[in-house]
């Protein structure tokens, strides 16, 4: 079947249809060099679209799942999906909480691995819409874990946690063994809940699970709700940007991490994941359980990050500096990646200036500066 026909197909919900099944099976086929068959949830998202393409490129079978929600403009998700379709990846349009859909999918394809990236992301939006986080990050995750636990054989799971689980941790850099029991946002609380739920399913059912704590990821085809993206838009349009500062005028800092490094970390995690050890809902022996930081290890103050953006955009920002609203931000993040380096060969190699240069180039070509991006953040007001 020609993947060009998939756009239409994936938007039609009835998954009991023969053409839909054919598309799923075709997309799941491994090519030469491929070792695994992966279900990527959140495949129309920023990170999911990049990793799906990387897996497909080396021959793995890849099937996507995404509900194409309108947290940020759906047009961008459709454009990413179209890139994936061209590469031969079918994205099933549906919700993680749809048990019947998951059952049908897992019956059709024997997934060796799940790369679970679908979630309600964004720290500040949780103040506005907390239940969206509970729905996708808690309910959706448990629905997926239930399906995986019941599968025979069970797949190995690699999924996205978040640097936000470190919450109010003040010990730097953040190490995987540091405390994560004082979250600063509801988003972080749901990501922490995921780590605890993951441990439970690993313990009772023998699911092999790896949690990846990503640190503020940026890059081409990125997320319009994130600062690097919305700041770029405002600078291009000559509109002010809002920069948060701490209660005593301190600058916030983030360990901004380029998408290509995150993709390498995800792929290496899949490659090193051991098989699950259970069957029929029962554990036979202890299964692998891992947690890794995937950051850049070089935090940058938000003001300095804006200066780098200005340099690449060749335009000054109008900076509006305000006290940080009480919507869940933390003062700084900083990853210790020793464990990921040792176990995964993870070695972040893109510095912020190089990465932002690549992002700005993409942004300008995608939105053709001055035209077509007026609606990009339409309706988006996170705080
Ligand atoms: N980008 C970052 O800086 C960052 C940092 C830390 C952690 N993370 C985590 O990494 C993962 C990927 O993030 P991203 O930046 O690509 O976000 P994204 O919003 O671009 O991608 C998530 C995708 O999941 C889909 N989705 C959401 N809820 C769903 C549901 N219930 N059923 C099916 N699909 C659903 C969305 O439509 C979206 O396309 C998320 O789990 C996020 O929390 C991201
Ligand atoms: O690492 C993570 O775990 C998190 O990284 C990002 O969250 P955040 O670091 O808040 O990323 P941005 O929204 O891009 O903000 C970057 C920095 O700019 C600041 N900011 C943001 C927006 C704004 O208008 N002004 C401003 O100063 C934020 O406080 C933060 O310090 C993602 O949005 C989360 O989904 C993810 O889980």
TrEMBL record:
GO MF annotation, one: UDP-glucuronate 4-epimerase activity
Catalysed reactions listed for this entry: UDP-alpha-D-glucuronate = UDP-alpha-D-galacturonate
Domain NAD-dependent epimerase/dehydratase: 38-272
Family the entry assigns: Belongs to the NAD(P)-dependent epimerase/dehydratase family.
Protein name: UDP-glucuronate 4-epimerase
SUPFAM superfamilies associated with the record: NAD(P)-binding Rossmann-fold domains (SSF51735)
Membrane topology: Multi-pass membrane protein
EC number: 5.1.3.6
Keywords assigned: Isomerase, Membrane, NAD, Transmembrane, Transmembrane helix
Location of the protein in the cell: Golgi apparatus, Golgi stack membrane
Any Gene Ontology CC annotation: Golgi cisterna membrane
Family annotation (Pfam families): Epimerase (PF01370)
UniProt xrefs under InterPro entries: Epimerase_deHydtase, NAD(P)-bd_dom_sf
Keyword Cell cycle: no
């Amino acid at each position: 079947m020609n993947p060009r026909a998939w756009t239409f197909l994936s938007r039609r919900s009835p998954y009991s249809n023969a053409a839909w099944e054919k598309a799923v099976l075709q997309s799941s086929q491994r090519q030469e060099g491929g070792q695994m068959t992966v279900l990527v949830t959140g495949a129309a998202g920023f990170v999911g679209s990049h990793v799906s393409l990387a897996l497909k490129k080396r021959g793995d079978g890849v099937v996507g799942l995404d509900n194409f929600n309108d947290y940020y403009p759906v047009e961008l998700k459709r454009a990413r999906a179209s890139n994936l379709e061209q590469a031969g990846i079918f994205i099933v349009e549906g919700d993680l909480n749809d048990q019947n859909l998951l059952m049908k999918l897992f019956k059709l394809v024997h997934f060796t691995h799940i790369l679970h990236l679908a979630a309600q992301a964004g720290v500040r939006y949780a103040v506005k819409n907390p239940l969206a986080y509970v729905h996708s990050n808690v309910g959706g995750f448990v629905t997926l874990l239930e399906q995986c636990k019941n599968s025979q054989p069970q797949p190995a799971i690699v999924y996205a946690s978040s640097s936000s689980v470190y919450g109010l941790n003040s010990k730097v850099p953040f190490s995987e063994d540091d405390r994560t029991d004082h979250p600063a946002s509801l988003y972080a609380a749901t990501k922490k809940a995921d780590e605890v739920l993951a441990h439970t399913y690993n313990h009772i059912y023998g699911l092999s699970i790896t949690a990846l704590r990503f640190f503020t990821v940026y890059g081409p085809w990125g997320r319009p709700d994130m600062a690097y993206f919305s700041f770029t838009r405002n600078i291009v349009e000559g509109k002010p940007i809002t920069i948060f500062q701490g209660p005593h005028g301190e600058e916030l800092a983030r360990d901004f991490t380029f998408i290509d490094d995150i993709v390498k970390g995800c792929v290496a995690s899949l490659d090193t994941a051991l098989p699950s050890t259970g069957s029929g809902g029962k554990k036979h022996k202890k299964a692998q359980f891992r947690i890794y930081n995937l950051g850049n290890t070089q935090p940058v103050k938000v003001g300095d990050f804006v200066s780098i953006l200005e340099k690449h955009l060749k335009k000054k920002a109008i900076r509006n500096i305000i006290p940080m609203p009480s919507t869940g931000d933390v003062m700084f993040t900083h990853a210790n990646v020793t464990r990921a380096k040792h176990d995964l060969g993870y070695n972040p190699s893109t510095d912020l200036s190089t990465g932002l240069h690549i992002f700005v180039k993409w942004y300008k070509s995608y939105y053709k500066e001055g035209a077509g991006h007026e609606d990009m953040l339409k309706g988006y007001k996170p705080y």
